[in-house]
Write a structure and sequence with these properties.
The protein is 51% helix and 3% strand. By secondary structure, it is mainly alpha-helical. The protein folds into 3 domains: 6-96, no CATH class; 99-160, no CATH class; 181-288. A two-stranded antiparallel ribbon has the order 1-2. A hairpin with a 5-residue loop joins strand 1 (59-62) and strand 2. Helix 7 (120-127) packs antiparallel against helix 8 (133-145), helix 8 (133-145) packs antiparallel against helix 9 and helix 13 (216-229) runs antiparallel to helix 14 (234-248). The protein is globular.
Length: 288
């Protein structure tokens, strides 16, 4: 569930890859991801998880020596996971800003670091007003994160590099998504090129555009074909989550196992709460 939910969110994955070492394992050493060493490491810190039947464990934030410095429910939203990660870093500034990481970076690379660290103001300052298409795209992505559509459009409209066409096209889809313009969103993404690095992202939103027009069968077919035809990535996991929940046709997305009729990934285990995108875009949250 975490890979389909919080860890398919670009904010969470960006910060996790910059400041944490993510890993998962089965508490049962006989599970598909059984790891006896990891199990012992956790049980030393939380003995109750070595006693057989236990509730679904939370996500733990631990030091290399086994100290638990934070935790968040396995059922948490991406916002809750992100807030917990940022709190852990605030409480442990020694991990928050390694000087060596920023020292050799400049331009786009430094801006991306700051974006991953959730410092959007700092990233925009680094990017400045440089009239370079890669810089315009980077600024456009930040404006999209803030839902500053006018500023985003200004930067995207100025991009002339044909190699960035797919990137620009995907960015332009987001105002349609947040504006609930399902018909236009479907039309905009319908023939997105498969060779694009953002193909799975486009297909995920194409499925949502169809789902919200009550074309459930077409939405399911879109997600299933994408999952079957592409390498696994965060958008594939998220598509599987949407497919599973749409198949269930229930208010809650919880279930204990998933076979091929329910999950194209044949996922086993808890899939968490309902994919919020099936209810439409979420309200805007404040971002630094």
């Amino acid at each position: 569930m975490l890979r389909a939910g919080p860890f398919s969110d670009e904010r969470v994955t960006g910060l996790a890859n910059r400041r944490f070492v993510p890993f998962f394992f089965d508490l049962s050493v006989r599970g598909a991801a059984g790891d006896p060493d990891a199990r012992r490491f956790l049980v030393q810190a939380r003995p109750k998880f070595g006693r057989g039947q236990v509730p679904t464990p939370p996500v733990f934030f631990m030091t290399p020596t086994g100290e638990v410095v934070g935790e968040v429910s396995n059922y948490a939203s991406a916002d809750e996971v992100l807030e917990t990660m940022l709190r852990v870093l605030r409480e442990h500034p020694e991990w928050a800003k390694p000087a060596a990481e920023e020292a050799g970076l400049k331009g786009l690379a430094k801006a991306q670091l700051l974006v991953d660290l959730q410092d959007l103001d700092g990233a925009l300052k680094v990017l400045g007003g440089k009239a370079d298409d890669d810089y315009r795209l980077a600024r456009g992505k930040i404006h999209r994160r803030r839902r500053a559509w006018t500023l985003m459009k200004k930067d995207l409209d100025a991009i002339g590099d044909a190699k960035l066409e797919d990137q620009v096209r995907m960015e332009r889809a987001y105002p349609m998504w947040f504006g609930r313009d399902w018909t236009q969103l479907e039309k905009h993404l319908a023939d997105f090129p498969k060779e694009s690095a953002r193909y799975t992202e486009a297909r995920y939103y194409l499925g949502l555009a169809r789902f919200h027009q009550e074309k459930k069968g077409e939405a399911l077919a879109t997600w299933k074909a994408t999952i079957a035809g592409c390498s696994q990535d965060p958008w594939i996991y998220r598509s599987d989550w949407a497919f599973c929940n749409a198949q269930q046709n229930k208010s809650s997305g919880s279930f204990s196992s998933a076979g091929p009729r329910t999950s194209p990934l044949n996922r086993i285990g808890y899939l968490g709460p309902k994919n919020p995108d099936l209810d439409g875009p979420t309200p805007r949250r404040r971002t630094r």
